[in-house]
Amino acid sequence: MFNKTKKFYNTYKANMLKVLSVFFILCIIANILSSTEKAYSETGEYKDWKQADSRWGDKWLCSNSYEDYNMAQIGCAVTSTAMLAVKSGAAFETSFNPGVLCDFLYENKGFDNDGDLIWGKVAGLIPRFRYIRPYNIGSQPKDVLISELSELIDQGYYIVLTVKPDNGHWVAVDRIEGNDVYILDPADNGGKILFDYYYYGNCTTARLFKGPDSVNAPYYTQEEEETVSVNEIISEIDYSMGYTVDDMPIEESDVSVDYDTPVEEETGIANSDVPAEEDTSKSSVSYSENTLPKTTGYYLVNATDNDLNYRSGAGTSYPSLGKLPHNKLLKITEIKGNWGKFQYNDKTCWVSLNYVDRVLLGDIDGNGTVNSKDYTSVILYRANQRTFNARQRILADVNFNGTVDVGDATLLMNVVYKGGKLPE
Asked: Are strands 320-324 and 356-358 parallel, antiparallel or unpaired?
């Protein structure tokens, strides 16, 4: 009996030693792999990325595909942003570079018609690296500029800085040591200290991002963003659109529009084409006196109890695929009878048009057009001088970055003054 117990003990001991040995070997392998990954992600290659690199220099920034609209020509903003995304730890060199960012932005309408970067779109690819706001520096003495940049870095911002007139070139601010501002320059001059290559008087505006160490929410809300003045916002639009303040005054008639009034609700109207199942306990939100026709385009769900069915086909005989929340924005691409087709959760879906309102993106005051009052309201909202209800916030977010910002005002101005089109 003693021998059997001893034999069992010895066998158990040998097996445990094998298990422990395998465990320690796996730990060593995991540590090696972790160190390797860290080495790859911290090689510092990103600091030498150039916009004209042969790996991405010929990638287009806009659908027009003109000769001067590729990365090599005007990709400084994209490259600078990519470098800071890696510096922040939100992206890694092993799977990310300026070419990857350019491809994403091109495919997701991250550039305007002139190839300029729509900054808020970056977070769609790099969720932990988010555009916060523009920063208007103005023409400042050199020591004041250094002080302002240093303060922004201390506040946790990653800075993309313009260094030539009319936003002619963007660089990434790396760090500040004493009176030296070190930059990551996507141009081919190899410059590392800002004022060795660029005149401080041309460093008039910046774009501010925050990385994973300071951003946790999916998107910043208006309340979480820092307030900027109306003049700062207008100045940013001036720089990006080529206008002067005199070209786009905020008139008293624009300011006097009452955007603070909540949208009133009215009782839904039953329709013989919609069975009672779709018609019970629904209410309709009044959008505008000028009712838009039920054509393809954008719609907002007006059912207030968050239980509007969306179905696999155009009719209540088709199974429900789920429920749509109040004020959900839908893009209807086909209409069949009184039903509209849209894509949702990677599925083709249909919804009764009785319980969705046809809307026009950017038409914040609901008068059926996009006009100066709409972009003015965005400027005032961004400066905390105007409030929007939930529906107006959705209609104002024309660049689809999850917040109402200067980019939205810029796009709306492009529509009003240049006959431009909003992103689809």
From this structure: unpaired
Both 81 and 202 in a single domain?
yes
Say whether both 59 and 201 belong to one domain. yes
Two tokens, residue 399:
């660049």
Let me know: does 112 contact 62? Beta carbons within 8 Å. yes
The token pair at 215 is: 């951003």
Q: What is the length of the chain? A: 424
**What is the Rg, in whole angstroms, of the alpha carbon atoms belonging to the chain?**
27
The residue behind tokens 């008087």 is 201
Q: Give 220's contacts (C-beta < 8 A, 6+ positions apart).
A: 130, 132, 402, 403
Q: Which domain holds residue 138?
A: 49-216
- 115 pLDDT tier (thresholds 50, 70, 90): confident
- Specify whether 69 is located in the same domain as 166: yes
Beta carbons within 8 Å of 64's beta carbon, 6+ residues apart: 113, 115
For residue 68, being part of any structural domain is answered with yes
Question: Which domain-ending residue is among 305, 335, 358?
Answer: 358
Cβ atoms of 159 and 146 within 8 Å: the answer is no
Q: Has residue 118 been placed in a domain?
A: yes
Residues 316 and 196 occupy one common structural domain: no
Which residues have CB under 8 Å from 210's CB, separation 6+?
88, 129, 130, 132, 156, 157, 158
Identify whether the C-beta of residue 220 lies closer than 8 Å to the C-beta of residue 403: yes
Using the structure block, give the residue that is written with the tokens 């008068």: 367
The enclosing domain of 288 has a CATH number of 2.30.30.40
Tokens of 413: 């101005």
Question: Within a domain: residue 386?
Answer: no
Q: What is the pLDDT of residues 309-362, one digit of tens each?
A: 999 999 999 999 999 988 899 999 999 999 999 999 889 999 999 999 999 999
